[in-house]
Design brief:
With 673 residues, the protein is α+β, with helices and mostly antiparallel strands. It is built from eleven helices and 40 strands. Helix 5 packs parallel to helix 6 and helix 9 packs parallel to helix 11.
Length: 673
């Protein structure tokens, strides 16, 4: 690597080159401005106004920041050696205090990545939340913020007012990135938190000629009350492709981090995972009698949770089903003796998380006000090692569902006997899930987290939209859409309209999670928002959830207890199974390549997968004529057409009647008469 210095007409230019001059990163200083440039981006800094702009050369779009007050950049200088860019100092105010940070802005030799690092001279000094850079705005009628916000993914218009999610904690993010894109022209960027454990995405709003425009920025938070370590963020710009390109750019980033572990690799270590391909996730009944009844009804595969005697479990396994058991290591009640410690019992308060304010952390509060406490993650693995082998010796489960671990936020523990940072807490989750996998068990978890993908095979909750109008965690089924609910903690649940818009609405949902991780992990609904959970209040929602499962190539969830569809509406159970199982089996190991809105009202949507399968679904009230695989299909509401090398399937109108046809290998189904 060589550094070449040149001065021309007062312009100072530093060429930082590799073997090819075309791969050079150029750093230029002219007057008060600095420019950092490679073949794809030109980044301009104005130190006096602390303004940064980015030209994406492929799209010719210039990303700018709002002119609101910012601290001036001081002591700007070119970076030499391996880092190619500029460094500078600035003071940032937060909560009435001022913090001096040193920042670096760098570009790679190739690629549209703007990397930013922030550090403090005294990392051990007290620290509070600091937003050190203003966001890059997109003032466009088609502008959108895209994020997997405790859901598979949403798109929020940048001018949406009020903005529904103003703050998204990194400690509770499904994926540590948020994007901005133009849904028509396609250009955008993904803001990736490379140090993803302390801080949050803040969606700030700015007035532009009477319009409110929102954009995301990173706010770094304290680690154990201090700055503690350098913070890194990455702006990955994309000239075209919209939210799909942003999701794929994060997939490439995740792959570089070792997070993309496809089923083709997981199956080599545990072939039993294949039992989940094309299986509904079923809760509420696990007996051999139920399994035989389901098999006789045509349910070829099933993920079934619950306890049963050893002989019965062996028999259920022999039917080809995937048997699994619920387990949880967070929520504990006190013990009187060491021998009593298990999944739900622990030394209280000694082994409970100690918060920064000196209080012990509460956990699950039951409907009858029984308060569990939060076991410190330090003790998760030791407890699992006590519990699971002993259980497996008597019950030959093929899987295990680990609740809470991948659904709760990262947190710290201040107990001097077992202290934890948020990063260390994440590590304890990896240890726990990795141990469960090491026992040869198909491993499931509640909700999804990017860091857990290599260690889980399926997740419950990612298909749900992050909002319900009833206490879904308590399995309280609403009797009507407008039934009011208040939880045991005093929380009032939102109105049905919010669930209809954000939870199950098709206009604002996009499969960001599936675009990144579809071929690595199976997604299904939350257990209190299952495919059949609204049998009384809104039975029509089941068909829409089936359509989402088909569109995304994911797993349905159903209940076989007395309130579920197996008992209350057997035909609904079997219809959901038929319509979603064969396509999930065909697509389970395939990467989702694309998703698009086919019609302006977003009612008709299309996905494509790496094995050549195309899916079109119509969520709208009016029939839609779709051409799939060279054939025309007239799709009713929640109708679908699928064509691929392993599956051909449709729900279409034939002579005014809805007809379902499924062809997958030797399997044939049609309800045409």
């Amino acid at each position: 690597m060589s550094n070449l210095f040149q001065a021309v007409s007062g312009l100072v230019i530093y060429f930082l080159t590799s073997a090819s001059a075309f791969a050079a990163v150029r750093v230029a200083h002219a007057g008060d401005r600095w420019v950092v440039e490679n073949s794809e981006l030109r980044v301009t800094l104005d130190p006096a106004s602390a303004a940064i702009s980015v030209l994406d050369k492929a799209s010719r779009f210039v990303w700018t920041q709002p002119p609101e007050a910012r601290p001036a950049f001081r002591t700007v200088k070119a970076l030499r050696g391996a880092e190619r860019g500029v460094g500078f100092d600035a003071e940032f105010a937060a909560a009435g205090k001022t913090y001096a940070l040193s920042l670096k802005l760098t570009l790679p030799e190739r690629g549209a990545d703007l990397k930013i690092e922030a550090d403090m001279a005294d990392r051990g000094a007290g620290f509070e939340n600091v937003s050190f850079l203003q966001p890059f705005l997109l003032d466009s009628p088609a502008g959108a913020i895209v994020v997997a916000s405790y859901a598979n993914g949403h798109i929020f218009p940048v001018d949406l007012k009020p903005f529904p999610r103003k703050r998204m904690n990194l400690t509770n993010m499904d994926m540590p990135w948020i994007g901005v894109c133009d849904l028509q022209k396609g250009h955008g960027y993904a803001l990736i938190a490379e140090t993803p454990d302390d801080g949050y995405f803040d969606v700030a709003s700015f007035d532009r000629e009477g319009r409110s425009i929102s954009a995301p920025r990173l706010v770094w938070g304290a680690s154990m009350r201090t700055f503690r370590y350098p913070r890194r963020a990455l702006y990955r710009f994309s000239p075209r492709g919209g939210y799909v390109a942003l999701a794929k750019s994060y997939r490439a980033y995740a792959e570089a981090q070792g997070l993309i572990v496809p089923f083709t690799e997981k199956l080599k270590k545990n072939p039993n995972i294949a039992r989940a391909f094309g299986a509904p996730d079923v809760w509420g009944r696990s007996s051999l009698a139920f399994a035989r009844e389901a098999k006789a009804a045509g349910v070829e595969k099933m993920l079934v949770h619950g306890t049963a005697p050893q002989a019965e479990l062996n028999a259920v396994n022999e039917l080809g089903y995937l048997t699994s058991r619920y387990d949880c290591y967070q929520d504990v009640m006190p013990v009187k003796d060491e021998s009593e410690i298990d999944s739900g019992r622990e030394w209280v308060p000694d082994n409970v998380v100690l918060r920064a304010d000196g209080t012990r952390m509460p956990a699950w509060l039951t409907w009858d006000k029984k308060q569990f406490m939060k076991r410190c993650p330090t003790f998760w693995l030791r407890t699992a090692q006590r519990v699971i082998p002993k259980d497996l010796a008597q019950h030959p489960y093929l899987g295990r569902f680990i609740d809470v671990t991948t659904a709760e936020a990262l947190y710290e523990c201040y107990d001097p006997k077992h202290p934890l940072t948020t990063t260390e807490k994440r590590g304890r989750g990896v240890e726990l899930l990795g141990y469960v996998r090491s026992l040869g068990l198909v491993t499931g978890g509640e909700h999804g987290r990017w860091w857990a993908v290599p260690y889980l095979d399926y997740i419950e909750g990612m298909m749900s939209g992050g909002s319900t109008s009833w206490p879904s965690g308590y399995l309280k089924r609403p009797k009507s859409k407008d039934e009011p609910f208040t939880g045991p903690d005093g929380r009032s649940y939102p109105k049905w309209e919010e669930y209809e818009k954000w939870g199950i609405g098709h206009e604002f949902r996009v499969p960001l999670w599936e675009l990144v991780f579809h071929d690595c992990i199976i997604s299904t609904w939350y257990w209190g928002d299952s495919s059949d959970f609204l049998l009384v209040a809104a039975p029509e929602v089941t068909a829409k959830k089936d359509a989402f499962n088909i569109l995304y190539g994911t797993m349905p969830m159903m209940w076989a207890n007395d309130e579920g569809s197996w008992v209350k509406d057997r035909e609904m159970f079997l219809r959901t199974y038929r319509n979603t199982s064969k396509i999930h089996e065909a697509l389970a190991t395939a990467e989702m390549l694309s998703h698009e809105f086919v019609t302006p009202d977003r009612a008709v949507q299309r996905t494509r997968f790496s094995n050549g399968t195309e899916v079109v679904v119509n969520f709208g009230g009016e029939p839609y004529e779709a051409r799939v695989g060279g054939k025309l299909h007239l799709l009713p509401r929640n109708g679908f057409a699928v064509k691929g090398p392993r599956i051909e399937q449709s729900l279409e109108l034939v002579d005014g009647k809805a007809v379902t046809t499924i062809v997958a290998g030797s399997y044939r189904y049609s309800d045409a008469k």
